[in-house]
Predict the 3D structure of the following.
Amino acid sequence: DDIILSFTRRMEDIEGDIRDLNEKEESARLKLSGKLEMFNGTALQIARLERLPLEAMAAATSLRAGHDRKGVVESGRKSLSDLIRKNRDEIYEIQEIRVQRESKKNEINGLRHNLLKERDNLQNLFEKQVDLLALDDSEKAEMASKAQKMKQQKTVATLLEKFANTDDYLPPVRHALKKLPVKGQLVEGYNEKTGAGLYSEGIKIETTAKEPVVSIKDGRVIYSDIFRDYGYMVIVEHADGSHTLYSGLEKSDRDVGFFAPAGTIIGYMPKTEKPELYLEVRKGGKTLDPVKYLSLNKSS
């Protein structure tokens, strides 16, 4: 969602500003550190002198206790005043930095509140959209029956050729992601030669155990089951005629017929050390590069 993205980016900018202010304050404090030691030392000496009994002062020095203590204290205070005056700019700079930082913190707290509110609104809209586009029982039963026939096909290509583009109830795509459907790193690219000597028709993403996998574009689940060597696979059909295939999942709670807005969790990775998600995109009987497909998405 564009609003959430703008909030997130603004928060990142403010966090950067706060880091800069912290560095500026530390630099200003370092400049004053030696002077502050001198200031504290002088102030401590004055305090001790003011508390020192006159008899002890007279015994410790050859000066006249009362008169000279007053003069020493006044001299020390003058030194403190001079020191403060000379370093007033540095002190004011630190104060100003702290005021700016507090203002930034207040702003980021306000943005966090708005971000949470916007996420709640978006979640409510998603839930309403899912409810509005839910199929009735007879339609679900029909799709489930088709899914069982899909399972008997030998390849994904024939599966989609025979059973795809059957949904007359898909609205135009409104939301799509520009990022991978799972957190991780790309370990096999599109059309890259595999260990079996074939060329990959999709991409592989190495991720972590139990990591959630999300739909990258608004669409309806038309297949959610084990399929051949793909393992557990979910296929989502989109209004633009494309299909996204997610395989290597441990399971999916999304039944056939479920409408999945972009960003909706459609499954989870298995409990293995380095599970890999296989993502394939097909349109018009041909495979597409998923990375390029993601970059062409108009919404994020």
